[in-house]
Amino acid sequence: xxxxxxxxxxxxxxxxxxxxxxxxxxxxxxxxxxxxxxxxxxxxxxxxxxxxxxxxxxxxxxxxxxxxxxxxxxxxxxxxx
Amino acid sequence: xxxxxxxxxxxxxxxxxxxxxxxxxxxxxxxxxxxxxxxxxxxxxxxxxxxxxxxxxxxxxxxxxxxxxxxxxxxxxxxxxxxxxxxxxxxxxxxxxxxxxxxxxxxxxxxxxxxxxxxxxxxxxxxxxxxxxxxxxxxxxxxxxxxxxxxxxxxxxxxxxxxxxxxxxxxxxxxxxxxxxxxxxxxxxxxxxxxxxxxxxxxxxxxxxxxxxxxxxxxxxxxxxxxxxxxxxxxxxxxxxxxxxxxxxxxxxxxxxxxxxxxxxxxxxxxxxxxxxxxxxxxxxxxxxxxxxxxxxxxxxxxxxxxxxxxxxxxxxxxxxxxxxxxxxxxxxxxxxxxxxxxxxxxxxxxxxxxxxxxxxxxxxxxxxxxxxxxxxxxxxxxxxxxxxxxxxxxxxxxxxxxxxxxxxxxxxxxxxxxxxxxxxxxxxxxxxxxxxxxxxxxxxxxxxxxxxxxxxxxxxxxx
Lengths: 81, 464
Prior knowledge:
Strand content of chain B: 25-35%
Oligomer: heterodimer
Shape of chain B: globular
Radius of gyration of chain B: 25 Å
Order of helices and strands of chain A: HHHH
Largest sheet of chain A: none
Shape of chain A: globular
Helix content of chain B: 10-25%
């Protein structure tokens, strides 16, 4: 499974578990408009660490943190290289 | 306080010799240490900074290292800002440290920063030094602890307290090039800066924002032989094929609990390297090093006599006393750094198993999920209500978004049979938690384990 599809499936799974309505995901959708809150993202990042073996958030500078779905996926694609 | 010139970092560096063949290399620039004999990174400002309390707020590590070398013995105090320090804390940090000079990357003072009488620009390009270097002051080095939230603590050291462990290091027979994943403005990274400067070697510095793979390639190309990182750094390095990029002779870990798994992975990756993990804190300094490649540390480290660091365990936490501990915290209303007996309580909990101590966590056991406090016991009570659960333990797992998340381990009354049933049982237990707890207290993962440790008092051992 590609990094992109792994990330997207975690978004969907966590949204379902947390009873959140997930917006249709596009690359330029701001993370704040996805329907996921900070706890959801915490869980997504935790699961992705298990799934991909990387935790790019712990090492990222504040300025380089993603603000969109596409940026989020890219952060993981870069880290998983 | 005045002291002889021989005590400054520059004079110790000069005495370590071979400056023309040694360098500090950053990502974009490097400086040959010998060029500091007649050059300065601070423009013409060095003498203006004499006797002042200097806030060093530069982004790059190389510029920071050069300024530190030049200012020790000259400034009254150097406040070492880490690049991630939130600017909202700067006024309070400056007030607490009585800052009256700023060294920054910029050509002009930042309008957001409180004005000071003296401003200088630091950098990585050297210009001719107007007059020979003179020290004379015992400079205070102020390190900021990376607190999880709120105002950082300002911890006062001097070159003498910081350099103790570095001076204990043995000289290697073959040439050494040091590096570290840490920033040199944190205690761990500072130890490596001083090892390189005082130990007669070169140093390769990482750069904020530099990809791990790029840094590893650069360090490999510079011939790095000795390198320090936290277990997290090393895991990241391992995921970036560190074994094919770097061939260190000495691999050091500190700053977090060092688990056996990371030691084993590093041993497999670097079969011929010395593998060392150290315990240190900004306040207490370097406590001890472990050389046997095993997690934890030998029990005889505690209470050992005649060693430069005295170590004891009291109320379960590790306490250190030595000439390496910091002097005090700066600022209004700060608590004493050490107890009346001179020992610093590190608040790191240890447990004796056989003839070794192991780190088990921090004294402050409450789990903090994005600012919300959780007592593990209340979540366990809910889980334990499920008929198939024998016992459970709830704990925090570190998380970059919320600081921590809650995870649960539990022991079942009997083994779940196939994986499908195990999945269904986990869902059932999570559903139970969701129906009786607020969202942030619901474990984000549930793991079945064969057993959980119990204390002599018959309670779940949270520190096991």
